[in-house]
Write a structure and sequence with these properties.
Blueprint (H helix, E strand, L loop, with lengths): L1 H8 L21 E8 L2 E8 L7 E9 L2 E7 L8 E3 L11 E2 L8 E7 L7 E9 L4 E10 L4 E3 L8 E5 L17 E7 L2 E4 L5 H20 L5 H13 L3 H11 L5 H14 L5
Helix pairs in contact: 2-3, 3-4
Length: 273
C-alpha cells in the first residue's frame, strides 16, 4: 500500500497544473470552469487565467434544485493559487459527495498553491438545513494530498493522507517520510481517526522500515524514515519497541542529539502522550 501511495503523494505537485483528470472547459476569454453534480446539488468553480500560472477571480457557485444558494469569490493566497478538480481522483469533476453519512452531500473545492512541491488544501462546504446556507472549513494537506477511501465498507468516507509536519523536520524534503494519517469529516469538523486502523498502520510501518533498509544500502542515513516509522509505532501503542529498533539502527555520531530532537518532536506533534 505504502509504495503506491507514496508514489502518488510524493510526486511533484506542480504536475497538478497539467493533470488530465481536472475537468476544465477553456474558453476564448481565458476563463475556465470546473463543475460537479450530485442529486439536486450542482457546484461550479470559475476563474480567469490572464497568463500562464496566473489565476484570478476564482468564484464558487452552489445551486440546489436549480436555485443558487451560494455565490462567492474565493480568497487566494497568491495569484498562483488555483482550483483543481478532485486531487488524484479519476472523476473529471468537482467532488460532491456525502462525507459524513447524513444523506447530504458536501462540496469539496481543492486548491494547489503552486511551486515545486507545495501545497494543497481543501475547502469543504456543508449545507445547514436550518439556516439554508453553506458553512465551510479548510483542511491543509501540505506537500501531499489525500484519497477518498471507505476502509470499513460502512458508507462513511475516510480521507487517507500523511502527516506533512514531518517534511524537512529531520532531513531534506526529498529524503523525508511521513506517518499515515486517516481523517473523517464529521458534521463540519475533520477528525483524525488514524488509530482506529491498526492493520493499516502496521502495514504502513512495515513498508517504511523496508524502504529505510533499501535507502541505507544506497548511502542515505534514513533519519526521515526512522522518524516516520517511530511515529507509526506510537500510533500502534508500540513506542518503546520502536525506539529499541531505531536505536539499534541509527549509530551515527549525532545519535544523541537526533534522538532528543525526535522525542521532543513526537511529543509536540501528539504522538507521545
Amino acid at each position: 500500500m505504502l509504495k503506491n501511495f507514496r508514489a502518488v503523494l510524493s510526486q511533484s505537485l506542480i504536475g497538478l497544473a497539467v493533470l488530465s483528470q481536472i475537468a476544465v472547459v477553456t474558453q476564448p476569454s481565458s476563463a475556465a470552469t470546473i463543475v460537479g453534480e450530485s442529486g439536486n446539488v450542482r457546484a461550479e468553480i470559475s476563474y480567469e487565467k490572464p497568463e500562464e500560472y496566473q489565476y484570478k477571480n476564482v468564484r464558487l457557485q452552489i445551486s440546489r434544485a436549480g436555485k443558487v444558494v451560494l455565490d462567492q469569490k474565493l480568497p487566494q493566497e497568491s495569484e498562483y493559487d488555483r482550483p483543481v478538480g478532485g486531487i488524484y481522483e479519476k472523476e473529471e469533476k468537482l467532488p460532491i459527495l456525502d462525507l459524513d453519512g447524513d444523506k447530504e452531500p458536501e462540496v469539496i473545492a481543492d486548491f494547489f498553491t503552486g511551486g515545486a512541491h507545495c501545497c494543497t488544501y481543501s475547502l469543504i462546504y456543508r449545507y445547514d438545513k436550518k439556516s439554508q446556507k453553506y458553512t465551510q472549513i479548510r483542511q491543509d494537506w501540505g506537500n501531499g494530498a489525500y484519497r477518498f477511501q471507505d476502509f470499513d465498507k460502512d458508507g462513511i468516507i475516510e480521507l487517507e493522507s500523511r502527516d506533512d509536519r514531518f517534511a524537512y523536520s529531520f532531513t531534506a524534503y526529498a529524503a523525508s517520510a511521513y506517518p499515515l494519517q486517516i481523517w473523517q469529516y464529521r458534521q463540519g469538523k475533520m477528525v483524525d481517526v488514524t488509530r482506529r486502523y491498526p492493520k493499516l498502520i502496521y502495514s504502513h510501518a512495515s513498508e517504511l522500515w523496508k524502504t529505510y533498509t533499501e535507502i541505507r544500502q544506497q548511502g542515505d542515513d534514513g533519519r526521515g524514515f526512522l522518524a516516520a516509522y517511530l511515529a507509526d509505532k506510537y500510533l500502534l501503542g508500540q513506542g518503546e519497541d520502536g525506539w529499541k529498533r531505531v536505536r539499534q539502527a541509527y549509530t551515527k555520531s549525532d545519535r544523541a542529539q537526533y534522538f532528543a530532537d525526535l522525542r521532543k518532536f513526537l511529543r509536540e506533534t501528539g504522538y507521545v502522550k
